[in-house]
# Entry
Amino acid sequence: MSFKKILVVFVCLAFLAVAVSCKKKSGETIKIGAIFAVTGPASFLGAPEAKTAQMIIDEINSSGGVDGKSLELIIKDSTGSPEKAISFAKQLIEENKVFAIIGPSTSGETMKIKAICEDGKTILLSCAAAEDIVNPVAKYVFKTPQKDSYAAEKIFEVMKKKGITTIGVVASNDGFGLAGKKQLETIAPKFGITILIGEVYDKKATDLTGVLTKLKANNVQAVVNWSIVPAQSIVPKNMKQLNMNVPLFQSHGFGNIKYAREAGAAGEGIIFPCGRLLIVDTLPDNHPQKAVLAKYKKNYEGKYGEDVSTFGGHAYDAVMILVEAIKKAGADKEKVRDAIESLKGFAGTGGIFNFSVQDHNGLAIDSFDMLTVKGGKFVKYEDK
# Structure
């Protein structure tokens, strides 16, 4: 064979090797979409979620990926807008061909894209809290924050021990606020508690004096506020201004120390249900969540120089649940969906997850502890 022919054969083999290599590499990346409110009024939720998701993905890729496959995270900033969430969900499914979607940050956004993910047969691991996200169960839709109904029950348990029987409820007019208000109204009678007045306010409100004045006029024994930003800090300030010297309970959406700091002295004594991430240092070493919580807190705060929050924890759980399912089932969407639904005993930041066909949240009521604000910090609430 002449040198020229040998050269031609060599070049052809080289091109073939490159083609095979490229084809192989293109199949080694798993695309994961993420819709977070990185900016805007709900950025206290979305910003730590986005940072957490990227941190975890980077850690996994630096350790060799999942079964040799690297993960590509495509983050979309919805600014908390349901309309943007709809557009991004369609884009991620139809154009980016993502394997799954993490998020959105808020309940309203999640409810708007629930059907889109179902129709697109795309796994959705929501970081939003409203129980309506998984009730009724949708085949491809899961969520990582604890249930609204469990949060309401934990609040009412404390009220019952404190002898509180008549309360006022205020809630924001978004998906999370309205869903929580509904749970409070449904569950209160089971604990012998009467809601004398329930008010809904605009989620963008910067002064809630008028709403709270109505509650004060009804001589309520306690107030429950169910919302995300900015009202979480406004309600305690306005209550103090009105000399409403009754206990303030907040939802599990209060799990970011920034809210307590913004409330200042008015935030002292707020009681709320929460996962154990914010009190990890007080957990016994043999607690099943301790190692996960401590590692996440250390890595996040070390990387970003800011306090960890339960919201970032929801993203941590979503990513890690998806990764665990891929390890068990391989990179097959349907098999991964099935693997999530059958996942048991998985320790996350929100609790120990035990999913089932009937339960796409997977957390029990014991995933909550009751916390309070003391000295500007979150500590475990102790009955008095």
DSSP finds twelve helices and 14 strands in the chain. Confidence is low (pLDDT under 50) at residues 6-26. The radius of gyration is 23 Å. Residues 149-274+369-380 form a domain with the Rossmann fold fold (CATH 3.40.50.2300).
